[in-house]
Amino acid sequence: MGFKNLPMTTVKPVGNKEALFSSELRAEIDRWISKYPEGWQQSAVMAALDLVQADNGGHLTTELMDKVAAYLDMAPIAVYEVASFYSMYERKPVGKHKICVCTNVSCMVNGSDRIVEYLEKKLGVKLGQTSQDGQYTLKEVECLGACGGAPMFQIGHKYYENLSPELIDSILDGLE
Ligand code: FES
Which residue, 44, 66, 132, 166, is the most exposed by fewest CB within 10 angstroms? Predict the structure, then answer.
């Protein structure tokens, strides 16, 4: 049997998985697990981390990553690797609205520098910082695959494209 036919799972499953997360959260994670073949629950790790992060107000802790590992029968280090590799996961608290500004090539040649400058001035924070009122975190990210709408940013699960200062004002005004 080749490598691709074997799940990565090597850890002994924990007994009481009900105690790891609320029933609502487990139901959502289980829905993702059900999309994969029996025994391949680790394939739901990205979705599980996303759900757990949202449930925790926008960031992950080591304890939560350990719980995800236990829930999916994974080694904790394998979960840490995923959480530290992808920019969508946070391992420190973030503001209520996380603004992920793409500064990659297409966005850069279409003015992402000016977008960043405008946001930094408007929000009073630098890239990587959270505003004092806890409302906004400004984050620089790599290409988000919306190059045709450059310059763009992402807030929550929503993309905002062809940004201009006026559009940014109206987007931020519309946030709850
Ligand atoms: S370079 Fe910004 S979305 Fe691709």
Answer: 166
> Could you please report the per-residue DSSP string of 74-108?
--HHHHHHHHHHSTT--SS---SEEEEEE-SHHHH
Whole-model pTM? 0.86
Q: Is the CB of 106 under 6 A from ligand 1?
A: yes
Q: Are residues 81 and 101 in the same domain?
A: no
Q: Say which CATH number the domain at 158 has.
A: 3.40.30.10
Q: How confident is the model at residue 19 (pLDDT cuts 50, 70, 90)?
A: very high
- 69 in contact with ligand 1, CB cutoff 6 A: no
Q: Is the CB of 143 under 6 A from ligand 1?
A: yes
